[in-house]
Each structure stands twice: as C-alpha cells, then as structure tokens.
Amino acid sequence: MNSVFQIHRRKREKREREKERKREKEKEKQKERERERKRERELENVKKEAKIERQKRLFRDKSPKCIAMPI
C-alpha cells in the first residue's frame, strides 16, 4: 500500500516536472522571439542598404531623367 508520504512525494515530483516543462516552453518561446527580432533587424538593414545604393546610383549619374525616375 502507498503511504501518505509516497503520495505526496509523487504529487510534488509531478508539479516539479510540470514547472520544468513550462520553463522549457518559455525558453523556447523566448528564443523564437529573439530569432524573429533578429530577422526583422536584418531585413531593416537590407532595406536601408538598398535605399543607400539607389541613392548612390542616382547621384552618380547626373542626368535629369535618371534623377526624375524612381527605381
């Protein structure tokens, strides 16, 4: 027969396992959020670089039609 101590110990262990699972899920969510932020930052950097390159091309060629036409 199970003693009261064994029952309580099992319940406690079960709670601890559940807490550990929650912590792991939260860590994974945090990692995913960080990866998403990093992707967004990289995308913004690429957009900025592309804009700078367009501006450089426009100013390199001084012809009026090139400046008037957006790329």
**Total DSSP E strands:** 0
Question: Could you list the spans in which at least 5 consecutive residues all have pLDDT below 50?
Answer: none
- Which class best fits the helix and strand makeup? mainly alpha
- Give the SSE string: HH
Number of helices: 2
- The percent range for strand residues is under 5%
Question: Helical content, roughly?
Answer: over 70%
Separation of the first and last Cα atoms? 81 Å
Query: Main sheet, how many strands, which sense, barrel?
Result: none
* Nearest-integer average pLDDT: 87
Shape: rod-shaped
**What Rg, in angstroms, do the CA atoms define?**
29 Å
Structure description:
This protein is mainly α and 71 residues long. It has helices at 4-60, 64-68. The chain is rod-shaped, with a radius of gyration of 29 Å. The protein starts with a helix and ends with a helix. The model has no long low-confidence stretch (mean pLDDT 87).
Protein traits:
single chain; mainly alpha; 2 helices
What's the SSE blueprint?
Elements: H1 4-60, H2 64-68
Summarize the structure in short.
With 71 residues, the protein is mostly helical. It has helices at 4-60, 64-68. It contains two helices and no strands.
